[in-house]
Write a structure and sequence with these properties.
The complex is a heterodimer of chains A (113) and B (114). Chain A has 113 residues and is an all-beta fold. Chain A is 0% helix and 47% strand. Chain A has strands spanning 5-7, 10-13, 19-24, 31-37, 43-50, 65-69, 75-79, 88-95, 103-104, 108-112. In chain A, the strands form 2 sheets. In chain A, strands 2, 4, 5, 8, 9 and 10 form a 6-stranded mixed sheet that branches. A 4-stranded antiparallel sheet of chain A has the order 1-3-7-6, with no helix packed on it. In chain A, strand 6 (65-69) and strand 7 (75-79) form a beta hairpin. In chain B, the strands form 2 sheets. Chain B has a 5-stranded mixed sheet with strand order 1-9-8-3-4, with no helix packed on it. In chain B, strands 2-7-6-5 form a 4-stranded antiparallel sheet, with no helix packed on it. Chain B starts with 8 loop residues before the first strand and ends with a strand. The chains are: A mainly beta (113), B mainly beta (114). The interface between A and B is medium-sized, with 23 and 23 residues.
Chain lengths: 113, 114
């Protein structure tokens, strides 16, 4: 597609439920990133995928968070047993790599009630 | 990556040039200066980046001082739609090692007034 697509755009879930957030990167972009932005805060790095290399999961805040990237394209961020502090906008970005600009999606606004 | 310092907020009149400063006094020789902006309720948008020469594209110009310790993003004719938070980020250009992370600070909230 023309840009990075994220779904759903909004998600309201009950505390304790699991959620899956999807990211469709720009076709041909080898690098994919997940960031989180809490209300009024800056962007927090979560995880990075590059080609077939092992992902960098160092930014995931707890073991309730996991992410996969299937076939080097679509990525899913899963949050298990959601907590209220997980409420934030989850942003996905992709890049062709080598210093080229990153393209962000519009994000998924997650609200845990 | 080198840390950057930006003013918290700025105002600009519509149609005038908006000049957004950024200090990055600890930048190393192979680190680039990137600018992104985030319009309310949207994801960040790449604007421009440069190493030491001034750069211009359809969105903006980037002026980097000779000592590379500071830079200025210039929006030549600001419009109301340019109201956003502007982030100045310094990082290595390659994505090898741990160079892929973008470290966003608080940025500058630019408000373009009619």
């Amino acid at each position: 597609g023309a840009g990075v697509s994220q779904s759903p755009s909004n998600k309201v879930t009950e505390k304790g439920k699991d959620v899956e957030l999807r990211c469709d990167p720009i076709s041909g972009h080898t690098a994919l990133y997940w960031y989180r932005q809490s209300l009024g805060q800056g962007l927090e790095f979560l995880i990075y995928f590059q080609g077939n290399s092992a992902p960098d999961k160092s930014g995931l805040p707890s073991d309730r968070f996991s992410a996969e990237r299937t076939g080097g394209s679509v990525s899913t961020l899963t949050i298990q047993r959601t907590q209220q502090e997980d409420s934030a906008v989850y942003l996905c970005a992709s890049s062709p790599g080598q210093g080229r600009g990153y393209t962000f999606g519009s994000g998924t606004r997650l609200t845990v009630v | 990556d080198a840390k950057t310092t930006q003013p918290t907020s700025m105002d600009c009149a519509e149609g005038r040039a908006a000049n957004l400063p950024c200090n990055h006094s600890t930048i190393s020789g192979n680190e680039y200066v990137y600018w992104y902006r985030q319009i309310h309720s949207q994801g960040p948008q790449y604007i421009i980046h440069g190493l030491k020469n001034n750069e211009t594209n359809e969105m903006a110009s980037l002026i980097i001082t000779e000592d590379r310790k500071s830079s200025t993003l210039i929006l030549p004719h600001a419009t109301l739609r340019d109201t956003a938070v502007y982030y100045c980020i310094v990082k290595l250009s390659s994505t090898g090692g741990s160079n892929y992370k973008l470290t966003f600070g608080k940025g500058t909230l630019l408000t373009v007034n009619p």
